[in-house]
Write a structure and sequence with these properties.
The chain has a five-stranded antiparallel beta sheet with strand order 1-9-6-11-4, with no helix packed on it. The protein has a five-stranded antiparallel beta sheet with strand order 8-7-10-5-12, with no helix packed on it. About 5% of the residues lie in helices and about 45% in strands. It contains one helix and twelve strands. The longest helix is centred in the last third of the chain and has 5 residues. About 20% of the residues are buried. The two termini are about 20 Å apart. It has one domain: Jelly Rolls, CATH 2.60.120.10. The protein is mostly beta strands.
């Protein structure tokens, strides 16, 4: 199940501190950052049966689309994607569970999306399913 973790805020004269002291990062094996610059092209669909991911918008804003996939060889094309907006000004972590496919696009120029994974690159390549960008409709 995909879920959002809202960050807490502490603010004083020094500025703001956003945090979540309960998030356990023990399962995370790697991270990467996507910075498309001025290109607001939709990226996706990519799915994983076993891999879990966490998305965090470090700069700008992103729109993230998520579908649950029960059959990776014959996916349900009628699934309606869940839509999430990640905004660096209102930090939250989007937790993508296994058996999901995602697509995403920046909503602002120079946005930056951090992606955390519970698999190594080698493990992830064995669990990688790519679908045509038109597989699930995005309005």
């Amino acid at each position: 199940m995909t879920k959002e973790i809202q960050f807490n805020l502490f603010e004083d004269q020094r500025g703001k501190l956003f945090y979540d002291n309960d998030f356990n990062m023990a399962d995370i094996k790697r991270l990467y950052i996507i910075q498309p610059g001025e290109n607001k092209t939709l990226r996706g669909w990519q799915g994983h049966q076993l891999e879990r991911k966490w998305f965090f918008c470090a700069r700008g804003r992103y729109e993230v689309f998520v579908v649950t996939v029960t059959d990776f060889k014959n996916p349900d094309l009628e699934m309606e994607p869940n839509i999430f907006v990640l905004d660096a000004a209102q930090p939250k972590l989007l937790c993508i569970d296994k058996r999901s496919a995602t697509a995403f696009r920046p909503l602002e120029n120079d946005s930056s999306l951090m992606v955390f994974s519970d698999m190594t690159v080698e493990e992830s390549k064995k669990d990688d399913y790519r679908f045509n960008i038109d597989t699930w409709k995005i309005n």
